[in-house]
Amino acid sequence: MLRTPLPQIPRYARDDGLAERGFQQSLTISKRKRRSSRGCRLSSGFSLTPTLSRWERGVWDSHLVRRSAVRLAIIGTGKMATGLARGWLKASHDVTFGSRDPAGRRDFLIKEVGPGVSVETHAAALDSAECVVLALPYAEVEQFSARHAALLRGRVVMDITNPFDALPDNRTSGPEVTARAIGDGARVVAAFKTNFSGILARPVDAAGTVRDVFYCGDDVPAKAVVRGLIEELGFRAVDCGPLLAARVLDGMVPLMVEMDRRLGGPGRTRRAHWKFETP
Ligand SMILES: NC(=O)c1ccc[n+]([C@@H]2O[C@H](COP(=O)([O-])OP(=O)(O)OC[C@H]3O[C@@H](n4cnc5c(N)ncnc54)[C@H](OP(=O)(O)O)[C@@H]3O)[C@@H](O)[C@H]2O)c1
């Protein structure tokens, strides 16, 4: 059992307000219910019940209402980026990769992901995005976020990067560093940190269990977008609370890699996953 200490997490106080008021229950993300005369119609059919406050609805309205797909910018063109893009393109989202070398990566991406891919410079990909996925090496993320802060502010930023030993345990986390680099208006949600790239196309394991994707963040509407995107790939989205919880998720990654190496049979399976169970 994971015993990473959690002293800095004050019982998820930062989003307790909404959680305690039943926000999680009242927020409906449903592909079936694309339009509701009482609720808001959102991108990809994500819908909100009218129990949300005016402010919460306002955030949604300004970003995602009346669109048929989420415009995603995936920064990086590696294993995670291509794995996620395949699923989201299948779910009819609009995906643009941001690359250091768009022309040089185009043929590779067409072969890996499909003929419909679009690849741009970082700035061009960010410019039209509603949701940005940071799929870069961790060492590049802080600088990238600071350099593009103006384009990242206000957008949902899904940080999937893993610092491993680049940060001190439990005193900060990759996504908190990203949020600080973006500054005021950052809407960072950590997700997919504890999922190997090899399982992105396999949301259900060999035993028939739906794999979990842990996510956390402080911006509740941004988390709802991320949750919808996770569920559309076929995974169970597990809300781990505020961004502070990313300190623990960061620590779960090297442990997962080590346990996969020790317990996964000959070599690494790269198919291991964390599962949260309630009795
Ligand atoms: N692999 C996994 O199983 C896994 C699981 C969970 C999370 N993660 C995290 O997800 C992130 C991406 O992992 P990955 O396995 O997809 O890595 P990857 O295959 O190495 O791809 C990283 C991509 O980032 C871009 N990149 C590389 N060096 C860069 C630099 N110096 N500056 C800017 N961009 C650069 C490249 O795209 P361009 O050349 O097109 O710019 C590259 O394709 C990492 O932070 C990793 O910790 C990985």
Reconstruct the topology from this structure:
Blueprint: H1 13-20, H2 23-26, E1 40-41, E2 47-48, H3 54-64, E3 71-75, H4 79-90, E4 94-98, H5 102-113, E5 118-120, H6 122-127, E6 131-134, H7 138-147, H8 149-152, E7 156-159, H9 174-182, E8 187-191, E9 212-217, H10 220-232, E10 236-239, H11 246-263
Parallel strand pairs: 3-4, 3-6, 4-5, 6-7, 7-8, 9-10
Antiparallel strand pairs: 1-2, 8-9
The structure holds NADP nicotinamide-adenine-dinucleotide phosphate.
Q: How would you summarize what this structure contains?
A:
38% of the residues lie in helices and 14% in strands.
**Portion in beta strands:** 5-15%
Q: How are strands sequenced across the largest beta sheet?
A: 5-4-3-6-7-8-9-10
CATH architectural grouping: 3-Layer(aba) Sandwich
The ligands found in this model are: NADP nicotinamide-adenine-dinucleotide phosphate
- Main sheet makeup: 8 strands, mixed
CATH homologous superfamily heading: NAD(P)-binding Rossmann-like Domain
CATH class, named: Alpha Beta
Mean pLDDT: 81
Q: Indicate the CATH topology.
A: Rossmann fold
How many separate domains make up the residues?
1
Low-confidence stretches: 1-67
In angstroms, what separates the terminal alpha carbons? 16 Å
Q: What is the SS-derived class?
A: alpha/beta
**How many runs of DSSP E, i.e. beta strands?**
10
| Rg calc | 18 Å
Share in helix: 25-40%
User: Which shape, going by the Cα principal axes?
Assistant: globular
Helix count?
Answer: 11
SSE series: HHEEHEHEHEHEHHEHEEHEH
